[in-house]
């Protein structure tokens, strides 16, 4: 699956591919509109409409990955790598931005995206 993420002039293509239960669950939410807020210049994150199926947590990330933060039922879009270690319980990776990451990274502090 290739959800399209749009917001302002941001056009990105994300790949969730349905590889994990969490990724398939995220895809089942689409279309969805999510307001993302900047977190330390490293990521843009915002609440999902509901909890997702939990998956394998990890403490690392790379720019372009989409993750699910279970404690807050939030989507995290990692824009920059800065060596930050994700605290317990970790993040569940659910996809990756294929195109348009720069537009998301360069957007103002808040960004409303629509994933479909």
The percentage of residues in β strands lies in 35-45%
Strand order of the largest sheet: 1-2-7-5-6-4-3-8
- What characterizes the major β-sheet? 8 strands, antiparallel, barrel
Structural class: mainly beta
Kindly, what is the distance between the CA atoms of the first and last residues, rounded to a whole number of angstroms?
A: 10 Å
Question: Average pLDDT across residues?
Answer: 80
The proportion of residues forming helix, as a percent range, comes to 10-25%
How many β-strand stretches? 8
Low confidence ranges: none
Output the number of helix runs. Answer: 2
> Shape from CA axes?
globular
Order of helices and strands: EEHEEEEEHE
From the alpha-carbon coordinates, what is the Rg to the nearest angstrom? 13 Å
Map the helices and strands.
Blueprint: E1 4-7, E2 10-15, H1 21-29, E3 32-39, E4 43-47, E5 65-69, E6 74-78, E7 92-99, H2 101-106, E8 110-115
Antiparallel strand pairs: 1-2, 1-8, 2-7, 3-4, 3-8, 4-6, 5-6, 5-7
